[in-house]
Design brief:
The protein has about 325 residues and is of the alpha/beta class. About 40% of the residues lie in helices and about 20% in strands. Helix 2 links the parallel strand 1 and strand 2. The longest helix is centred in the first third of the chain and has 16 residues. It binds manganese (II) ion.
Amino acid sequence: MKITDFSREIAGFKSALIFSHVRPDGDTIGSAMALKEGLKSLGIRAETICAAEIPEKYSDFKLAGEFLRDANKGEFEAHIAVDCSTEQMFSNLSPLFFSTKNTFNLDHHISNTKYARRNCVIGNASCCENVFIVLKELGVTITPGIANSLLLGVVTDTGCFAHKNVTPATLSAASELVSYGADLNAINYSMFKAQPIERARLFSIVTSGMKTYHGGKLAVIAVRAADFAATGAAQDMTEGFIDFPLSVNGVEVAVSIMETGEKTFKISYRSKGKVNVNDVAKTFGGGGHVLASGCMLNGYFEDVLDKIVFTVGNYL
Ligand SMILES: [Mn+2]
């Protein structure tokens, strides 16, 4: 659906519950917080919800901290998903999401499965850019807090404007958001520079175990359960690890294999541009973008690694 219709329709409800995805990132958090504040300013009762806890590093953001972990069915007229490409990303909140007939889906992933009744997918670099368009269409006053939330998503989904997904529209949106009071330097520092010692220790273990395949075109890092145990790091601290193997000269595809449970692995793919890793992830039931995607795989680590090395090889 068109974004103008999306904006008009969601503004017609008295209450809205905004869903963020599990393993929450800056984009889903920023999108949800900004949309919540925007809808509230229009007199709509709005709350944000996420099946997972919001990582500590987002606590600096003024609007953060008020994500519900559960809600009653029928409590909100509309349910709006932000930055969620599939319904699996609601995890255990999926039944709640679909418990109203008024389900909305605002996203920027080209692989979005259009699971809601009303789906608005625009391939901007971040979902926050789409939320920004919605808020402006609704005439919402962009406060510094809203601007900061929106810029959080733009900055995190673009690696602070360093990824190939950045377009002139991304930079215009960012420029506007800074003029509305968003603090680019503070966001960049807290998202990409500051880190707890546990993360630094985990990073050194993981990168020292990096392996390359296919003549150095594929680089793989693995984050094993034992590494988390040895360092005390949390799973959500691994964001950004994959940029290191991708940075190696000659590497076209980087893969991170994270052990999230017994014989359960979360796989992330990044490409420099020659390989469409959305296609790679799709062969395993996952998806994402051309340059960044992911999937889940089950089995013994060695088998999972073999499957990935073989499959990526078909695309190199
Ligand atoms: Mn996103």
